[in-house]
């Protein structure tokens, strides 16, 4: 369960997250005054509060104002987790019923969009620690598992399991290199279909979140 912290601590956490995620970040001051991806999250928190407290029109107006200032459109109804970082930011669109987990990294041009005009859940649910590459479109009420990675410019319309990497149009899941290594080790002793059941001991439990920057 995520512990709740006050708005100021949360804002400082956002700055720390940007510092940690962006090797080009020079100082907390520069992040606080100039990182649009961080500002968009701050605006969203206000808009989301208004939306959830019966002030939907004001929530919507606030989010549109934020869009005009940051180039990032987050619907006030969307749920965004802790320590999310939107890098570069311009052109990101996050729909009303989207849910974004903790420690997610989104690059510019990412869309978490719907495929239907019907109300109700119609936008993606993104797990924790997911990386979504620049320009990727994740469409519909799909679920992206925790630790998954979605390649730049992918168009994803199906669920992605935890830890998987999906690329292309339409996006397909590729085996993770860690699994391929495990397969190679396993097939040295068993030339059968052990690649379908890689040795779990050979697969690292966790890995550093991959960073991809220009
Ligand atoms: C998807 C991604 C996370 C995979 O990274 P990786 O695990 O290091 O994988 P590799 O680069 O070794 O590529 C593995 C395979 O996927 C393919 N691939 C990688 N990214 C791809 C993409 N975005 N679209 C299509 N295919 C892609 C590679 O060509 C390679 O194919 P092959 O096995 O047939 O040779 C990464 O390529 C990516 O797109 N990251 C987002 C980066 C980004 O948006 N940066 C913005 C900086 S401003």
Q: If you average the pLDDT, what whole number results? A: 86
Q: What portion of residues is helical?
A: 25-40%
Put simply, the count of helices is 5
Spell out which ligands are present: coenzyme A
Quantity of strands, as a count: 15
Description:
With 214 residues, the chain is an alpha/beta fold. The protein is built from five helices and 15 strands. The strands form three sheets. A six-stranded mixed beta sheet has the order 3-6-9-12-14-15. Strands 1-4-7-10-13 form a five-stranded parallel beta sheet. A four-stranded parallel beta sheet has the order 2-5-8-11, with no helix packed on it. It starts with 6 loop residues before the first helix and ends in a 25-residue tail after the last helix. The model is unreliable at 179-214 (pLDDT under 50). Coenzyme A is lined by residues 88, 107, 133-134, 149, 151-153, 165, 167-168, 174, 212-214. Coenzyme A (COA) binds at residues 88, 107, 133-134, 149, 151-153, 165, 167-168, 174, 212-214.
Short account of what is shown:
By secondary structure, the chain is an alpha/beta fold. It has five helices and 15 strands. It is globular.
